[in-house]
Amino acid sequence: MAALALPTDAAAVSLWGGSFISRRDQQPEDSKYFHEPGDTDILHHYDSRFYTKTTGYEEKRDVQIHMMRAFLDTMREIGLETWLAHGTLLGWWWNGKMLPWDWDIDVQVSTSTLDYLGKNWNGTHHTYSTSLSPSNKPTKRTYLLDINPHACDPDRGDGMNIIDARWIDEVTGLFIDITGLAERQPNEAPGIWSDKNFHEYPVKDLYPMRETMFEGVVTKIPYAYDRMLTEEYGEKALVLTEYEGHRWNRDSKEWIKMQDFM
Predict the structure, then answer these.
(1) What is the tens place of the pLDDT at every residue in 211-226?
(2) What is residue 155's three-state secondary structure?
(3) Labelling 7: which of 168, 180, 188, 250 has CA 20 to 30 A away?
(4) CA-to-CA dists, residue 6 to 25, 130, 208, 211, 214, angstroms
Protein backbone atom coordinates (compact mmCIF):
# COMPACT_ATOMS: atom_id res chain seq x y z
CA MET A 1 0.00 0.00 0.00
CA ALA A 2 1.15 3.54 -0.58
CA ALA A 3 2.70 5.42 2.33
CA LEU A 4 1.25 8.92 2.45
CA ALA A 5 3.17 12.08 3.31
CA LEU A 6 1.87 15.54 4.11
CA PRO A 7 2.67 18.41 1.72
CA THR A 8 6.23 19.70 1.97
CA ASP A 9 5.93 22.58 -0.50
CA ALA A 10 4.70 25.65 1.41
CA ALA A 11 3.88 27.47 -1.82
CA ALA A 12 1.69 24.60 -2.98
CA VAL A 13 -0.14 24.52 0.33
CA SER A 14 -0.79 28.26 0.31
CA LEU A 15 -2.64 28.03 -3.00
CA TRP A 16 -5.36 26.14 -1.21
CA GLY A 17 -5.04 27.68 2.24
CA GLY A 18 -8.45 29.32 2.13
CA SER A 19 -11.61 28.93 0.11
CA PHE A 20 -11.56 27.24 -3.27
CA ILE A 21 -11.50 30.36 -5.49
CA SER A 22 -10.38 31.09 -9.03
CA ARG A 23 -6.76 32.08 -9.59
CA ARG A 24 -7.42 33.58 -13.02
CA ASP A 25 -6.79 37.09 -11.70
CA GLN A 26 -3.31 35.98 -10.65
CA GLN A 27 -2.28 34.52 -13.99
CA PRO A 28 1.30 35.26 -15.09
CA GLU A 29 2.02 36.05 -18.71
CA ASP A 30 2.46 32.31 -19.31
CA SER A 31 -0.76 31.04 -17.78
CA LYS A 32 -0.06 27.33 -18.39
CA TYR A 33 0.61 25.53 -15.10
CA PHE A 34 1.72 22.07 -16.22
CA HIS A 35 4.62 21.98 -18.66
CA GLU A 36 6.00 19.23 -20.87
CA PRO A 37 9.51 18.91 -22.36
CA GLY A 38 8.25 19.09 -25.95
CA ASP A 39 5.24 19.19 -28.26
CA THR A 40 5.69 15.80 -29.92
CA ASP A 41 3.13 13.08 -29.27
CA ILE A 42 5.58 11.34 -26.93
CA LEU A 43 7.23 14.26 -25.13
CA HIS A 44 3.83 15.80 -24.49
CA HIS A 45 3.20 12.96 -22.01
CA TYR A 46 6.04 13.80 -19.62
CA ASP A 47 6.15 16.39 -16.87
CA SER A 48 9.13 18.72 -17.45
CA ARG A 49 10.11 18.75 -13.78
CA PHE A 50 10.98 15.05 -13.75
CA TYR A 51 11.80 14.22 -17.37
CA THR A 52 15.35 13.06 -18.14
CA LYS A 53 14.89 10.58 -20.99
CA THR A 54 12.21 8.87 -23.01
CA THR A 55 11.20 5.45 -21.72
CA GLY A 56 11.13 2.39 -23.95
CA TYR A 57 8.05 0.33 -24.79
CA GLU A 58 8.36 -2.21 -21.97
CA GLU A 59 9.50 0.31 -19.37
CA LYS A 60 6.59 2.64 -20.19
CA ARG A 61 4.17 -0.23 -19.73
CA ASP A 62 5.70 -1.14 -16.37
CA VAL A 63 5.67 2.48 -15.16
CA GLN A 64 2.05 2.98 -16.20
CA ILE A 65 0.85 -0.17 -14.45
CA HIS A 66 2.42 0.78 -11.13
CA MET A 67 1.36 4.42 -11.50
CA MET A 68 -2.27 3.45 -12.00
CA ARG A 69 -2.28 0.87 -9.21
CA ALA A 70 -0.74 3.36 -6.80
CA PHE A 71 -3.21 6.11 -7.71
CA LEU A 72 -6.31 3.92 -7.44
CA ASP A 73 -5.15 2.38 -4.16
CA THR A 74 -4.36 5.82 -2.72
CA MET A 75 -7.74 7.27 -3.68
CA ARG A 76 -9.46 4.25 -2.17
CA GLU A 77 -7.43 4.61 1.03
CA ILE A 78 -8.29 8.31 1.29
CA GLY A 79 -11.93 7.45 0.65
CA LEU A 80 -12.42 9.51 -2.51
CA GLU A 81 -14.21 8.50 -5.69
CA THR A 82 -12.51 8.41 -9.08
CA TRP A 83 -13.30 6.58 -12.30
CA LEU A 84 -11.70 5.63 -15.61
CA ALA A 85 -12.17 7.86 -18.64
CA HIS A 86 -11.44 8.12 -22.38
CA GLY A 87 -8.82 5.69 -23.73
CA THR A 88 -8.18 4.28 -20.27
CA LEU A 89 -11.83 3.26 -20.08
CA LEU A 90 -11.52 1.74 -23.56
CA GLY A 91 -8.56 -0.32 -22.39
CA TRP A 92 -10.68 -1.59 -19.50
CA TRP A 93 -13.42 -2.61 -21.93
CA TRP A 94 -11.05 -4.85 -23.88
CA ASN A 95 -9.29 -6.69 -21.06
CA GLY A 96 -9.20 -4.68 -17.85
CA LYS A 97 -5.82 -3.22 -18.74
CA MET A 98 -4.32 -0.15 -20.37
CA LEU A 99 -3.94 -0.10 -24.13
CA PRO A 100 -0.22 -0.84 -24.59
CA TRP A 101 0.31 1.84 -27.27
CA ASP A 102 -1.49 4.57 -25.33
CA TRP A 103 0.59 7.30 -23.66
CA ASP A 104 -2.51 8.90 -22.12
CA ILE A 105 -3.90 7.77 -18.80
CA ASP A 106 -7.13 9.55 -17.90
CA VAL A 107 -9.29 9.52 -14.81
CA GLN A 108 -12.10 11.79 -13.71
CA VAL A 109 -13.41 13.05 -10.38
CA SER A 110 -16.20 15.35 -9.30
CA THR A 111 -15.22 18.96 -8.69
CA SER A 112 -16.12 18.49 -5.01
CA THR A 113 -13.47 15.74 -4.86
CA LEU A 114 -11.07 18.03 -6.70
CA ASP A 115 -11.78 20.73 -4.13
CA TYR A 116 -11.00 18.33 -1.28
CA LEU A 117 -7.79 17.15 -2.93
CA GLY A 118 -6.69 20.74 -3.48
CA LYS A 119 -7.28 21.76 0.11
CA ASN A 120 -5.94 18.63 1.80
CA TRP A 121 -3.60 16.68 -0.48
CA ASN A 122 -2.01 19.10 -2.92
CA GLY A 123 1.77 18.67 -3.16
CA THR A 124 1.81 15.34 -1.34
CA HIS A 125 4.36 12.66 -2.18
CA HIS A 126 3.21 9.05 -2.12
CA THR A 127 5.55 6.09 -1.79
CA TYR A 128 4.43 2.83 -3.36
CA SER A 129 6.06 -0.55 -2.86
CA THR A 130 5.02 -3.87 -4.36
CA SER A 131 6.38 -7.27 -5.27
CA LEU A 132 3.74 -7.58 -8.01
CA SER A 133 5.43 -6.47 -11.19
CA PRO A 134 5.37 -7.50 -14.86
CA SER A 135 9.14 -7.95 -14.51
CA ASN A 136 8.66 -9.98 -11.29
CA LYS A 137 11.01 -7.61 -9.47
CA PRO A 138 10.23 -5.69 -6.25
CA THR A 139 9.27 -2.12 -7.09
CA LYS A 140 9.39 1.06 -5.05
CA ARG A 141 8.26 4.35 -6.57
CA THR A 142 7.26 7.83 -5.45
CA TYR A 143 4.47 9.92 -6.96
CA LEU A 144 3.52 13.58 -6.69
CA LEU A 145 -0.13 14.60 -6.50
CA ASP A 146 -0.18 18.09 -8.01
CA ILE A 147 -3.39 20.12 -8.28
CA ASN A 148 -3.46 22.86 -10.90
CA PRO A 149 -4.24 26.19 -9.15
CA HIS A 150 -6.59 26.87 -12.09
CA ALA A 151 -8.60 23.74 -11.29
CA CYS A 152 -11.15 25.96 -9.58
CA ASP A 153 -11.70 28.15 -12.64
CA PRO A 154 -15.30 27.63 -13.79
CA ASP A 155 -14.49 27.32 -17.51
CA ARG A 156 -11.59 26.62 -19.90
CA GLY A 157 -10.37 30.23 -20.05
CA ASP A 158 -7.54 30.42 -22.60
CA GLY A 159 -7.45 26.62 -22.88
CA MET A 160 -4.02 26.26 -21.29
CA ASN A 161 -5.27 24.65 -18.07
CA ILE A 162 -7.91 22.12 -19.01
CA ILE A 163 -6.09 19.45 -16.97
CA ASP A 164 -7.01 19.95 -13.34
CA ALA A 165 -4.46 17.74 -11.64
CA ARG A 166 -1.75 15.16 -12.23
CA TRP A 167 -0.40 12.08 -10.50
CA ILE A 168 3.24 12.13 -11.56
CA ASP A 169 5.90 9.42 -11.46
CA GLU A 170 8.89 11.22 -9.96
CA VAL A 171 11.48 9.04 -11.73
CA THR A 172 10.29 9.22 -15.34
CA GLY A 173 7.89 12.18 -15.39
CA LEU A 174 5.06 10.09 -16.87
CA PHE A 175 1.69 11.02 -15.37
CA ILE A 176 -2.02 10.42 -15.02
CA ASP A 177 -4.29 13.29 -16.09
CA ILE A 178 -7.06 14.06 -13.60
CA THR A 179 -10.02 16.17 -14.70
CA GLY A 180 -12.99 17.38 -12.69
CA LEU A 181 -16.60 17.12 -13.82
CA ALA A 182 -19.38 19.43 -12.71
CA GLU A 183 -22.83 20.63 -13.71
CA ARG A 184 -21.47 23.84 -15.22
CA GLN A 185 -24.72 25.15 -16.73
CA PRO A 186 -27.49 24.14 -14.31
CA ASN A 187 -30.04 26.44 -15.93
CA GLU A 188 -29.26 25.86 -19.61
CA ALA A 189 -28.21 22.20 -19.34
CA PRO A 190 -29.47 20.67 -16.08
CA GLY A 191 -28.22 17.20 -15.33
CA ILE A 192 -25.26 17.50 -17.71
CA TRP A 193 -21.77 17.21 -16.22
CA SER A 194 -18.78 18.41 -18.19
CA ASP A 195 -15.06 19.11 -18.03
CA LYS A 196 -13.23 22.14 -19.44
CA ASN A 197 -12.55 20.44 -22.77
CA PHE A 198 -16.14 20.14 -24.02
CA HIS A 199 -16.71 16.54 -22.89
CA GLU A 200 -20.31 16.33 -21.66
CA TYR A 201 -22.07 13.50 -19.82
CA PRO A 202 -25.66 13.11 -18.61
CA VAL A 203 -25.42 12.38 -14.90
CA LYS A 204 -27.58 9.28 -15.48
CA ASP A 205 -24.78 7.91 -17.67
CA LEU A 206 -22.27 8.40 -14.87
CA TYR A 207 -24.24 7.17 -11.87
CA PRO A 208 -24.60 4.78 -10.22
CA MET A 209 -20.95 3.94 -10.74
CA ARG A 210 -19.96 0.32 -11.35
CA GLU A 211 -17.16 -1.27 -9.33
CA THR A 212 -14.69 -3.37 -11.30
CA MET A 213 -11.02 -4.34 -11.58
CA PHE A 214 -8.37 -2.55 -13.62
CA GLU A 215 -4.72 -3.61 -13.77
CA GLY A 216 -5.34 -5.85 -10.78
CA VAL A 217 -6.88 -3.26 -8.43
CA VAL A 218 -10.40 -2.13 -7.61
CA THR A 219 -11.74 0.90 -9.45
CA LYS A 220 -14.97 2.42 -10.74
CA ILE A 221 -16.36 3.04 -14.20
CA PRO A 222 -19.40 5.04 -15.35
CA TYR A 223 -22.75 3.27 -15.42
CA ALA A 224 -23.33 3.69 -19.18
CA TYR A 225 -19.70 3.00 -20.15
CA ASP A 226 -20.65 1.30 -23.43
CA ARG A 227 -22.67 4.26 -24.70
CA MET A 228 -19.98 6.69 -23.61
CA LEU A 229 -17.29 4.74 -25.46
CA THR A 230 -19.24 4.46 -28.71
CA GLU A 231 -20.14 8.15 -28.61
CA GLU A 232 -16.50 9.15 -28.13
CA TYR A 233 -14.73 6.59 -30.34
CA GLY A 234 -17.40 4.98 -32.52
CA GLU A 235 -18.52 1.35 -32.58
CA LYS A 236 -15.36 0.31 -34.45
CA ALA A 237 -13.29 0.92 -31.32
CA LEU A 238 -15.11 -2.01 -29.67
CA VAL A 239 -14.58 -4.49 -32.53
CA LEU A 240 -11.44 -3.48 -34.43
CA THR A 241 -8.72 -6.07 -33.67
CA GLU A 242 -5.73 -4.36 -35.30
CA TYR A 243 -4.66 -0.89 -34.23
CA GLU A 244 -1.49 1.16 -33.74
CA GLY A 245 0.78 -1.75 -34.69
CA HIS A 246 -0.96 -4.18 -32.32
CA ARG A 247 -3.25 -7.15 -32.88
CA TRP A 248 -5.81 -8.54 -30.48
CA ASN A 249 -5.06 -12.13 -29.44
CA ARG A 250 -8.38 -13.83 -28.75
CA ASP A 251 -6.78 -16.69 -26.83
CA SER A 252 -4.66 -14.67 -24.40
CA LYS A 253 -7.02 -11.66 -24.46
CA GLU A 254 -4.05 -9.35 -24.89
CA TRP A 255 -2.98 -6.70 -27.39
CA ILE A 256 0.27 -7.97 -28.92
CA LYS A 257 2.74 -5.97 -31.00
CA MET A 258 2.34 -7.25 -34.55
CA GLN A 259 6.06 -7.89 -34.95
CA ASP A 260 5.73 -10.41 -32.09
CA PHE A 261 3.31 -12.48 -34.19
CA MET A 262 6.01 -13.07 -36.82
Answers:
(1) 999 999 999 999 999 9
(2) coil
(3) 180
(4) 28, 21, 32, 29, 27
